[in-house]
Amino acid sequence: MKKVVMNRVYDTSRAKRLAVVNVKGTQITELYRKRTGEFFLFCGYSDGNQTVEPLSYNEACAWAGRFMSADEYERIFGKIGNERVVTSISISGEAYKKLKQLASDNKVSMSEIIEKIIFKNA
User: Fold this and answer.
1) 3 state SS for the chain
2) For residues 90 and 6, what is the distance between their CA atoms, to the nearest angstrom?
3) What digits encode the pLDDT tens for the residues 85-117?
């Protein structure tokens, strides 16, 4: 199913299906993630109606926590806890110099500067 919601395209044939839940025999709900990282639910009803509901990351986590096993949840969203994750990002050369300077001035790692910014704005 392909549907436009708030000027954004949600297409079940192009997104990755992460989970399927049968609700009381009258509704099939499927959790999808687009290439862009956006989540959405596809709901198919026994009367033939179909809907698409975009989800924020937190809404997708809450839905998965309610309907999926812990192993399935961790497969999609990662381990629950404070373990470190190594990742790669792309920033401008100017931003990199500023990040390096902030870390040096504060005697902390660049990762700590980034985490402080993220959690301050969360």
Assistant:
1) CEEEECCEEEECCCCEEEEEEEECCCEEEEEEECCCCCEEEEEEECCCCEEEEEECHHHHHHHHHHHCCHHHHHHHHCCCCCCCCCCCCCCCHHHHHHHHHHHHHHCCCHHHHHHHHHHHCC
2) 29
3) 788 889 999 999 999 999 899 888 899 999 899
